[in-house]
Write a structure and sequence with these properties.
Distance between the termini: 31 Å
CATH class of the largest domain: Alpha Beta
CATH superfamily of the largest domain: P-loop containing nucleotide triphosphate hydrolases
Strand order of the largest sheet: 6-7-8-3-9-10
Largest sheet: 6 strands, mixed
CATH topology of the largest domain: Rossmann fold
Number of helices: 8
Strand content: 15-25%
Number of strands: 10
Bound molecules: adenosine-5'-triphosphate, magnesium ion
Length: 269
Amino acid sequence: MYDKNIISLKNIGVTYNIGNKNTLNALHDINFEIKSREFIAILGPSGCGKSTLLNIIAGFVKPTCGNALMNDKPITRPNFERGVMFQTPVLYPWLNVKENVEFGLKMRKFDKEERSKLSDKYLKEVGLFEFGNHKPYELSGGMRQRAALAGVLAGSPSIILLDEPFGALDAFTKINMQLLIRAIWSSDKSTFFLITHDVDEALSLGTRVLVMSKRPGKIIKEFNNIEFTYHINETVSDKTRFSKEYILLREEILGLIYHQTSDASSYVI
Ligand SMILES: Nc1ncnc2c1ncn2[C@@H]1O[C@H](COP(=O)(O)OP(=O)(O)OP(=O)(O)O)[C@@H](O)[C@H]1O
Ligand SMILES: [Mg+2]
């Protein structure tokens, strides 16, 4: 059901220089592909290299060894084809919400009318159309995340990279954001790569869940054909999360992560 590979990671390793001639091995021999329309969720202990991995795909970090490709071409720098969203939304405080959403389009020299059409469309999609003239400080945390998401969507990226985007939100806002992300994924059939500490988030949004080892991070297990997100979308109910299949998988994944960590810094819900 999925299309071609859009991202290929081959033998990726990252070693950081951390001063005094010391090095830190963050990632080791990472190999996987992301197909168009997949929703990949990545779980792993804190500090295992998840953000490093996302930064490689985004083009912010160059791997020490191996190749990161998008559509068979090396990823050498950030590019609008890969939209990125972090835990702290990136919004310019001196611009209003609409101007923030249009910022990337302006950099890409879209004309004013086109920019306005696109920002209106995506502000509506994230439910912030009425707030276009507001400044970021006038918004709640969840609204700021939605504004940042509208900015990412306005760029029409081929893949959206999310680094724990809901980690700082309260439980209800987080659920609403998850619903919004699922709705966007299922209507546009965009491709998503989501880092999370929350097993339920991974299982209820992902179509493929990858579990990483502690540092140096490796992929230790892949769970393919995760179907829960479709069921949740169809039934609009949370019953799926209480199914036997879901609970067993949740237990297996938690076991994998707890098994390799005993310190309190490796929190997974
Ligand atoms: N620019 C950098 N220079 C040096 N070391 C770094 C750099 N970025 C990350 N690291 C180190 O690499 C390791 C992996 O970091 P990374 O942020 O990728 O982990 P993570 O899995 O995202 O962690 P968390 O779950 O806490 O967000 C950590 O030990 C971190 O200290
Ligand atoms: Mg991180």
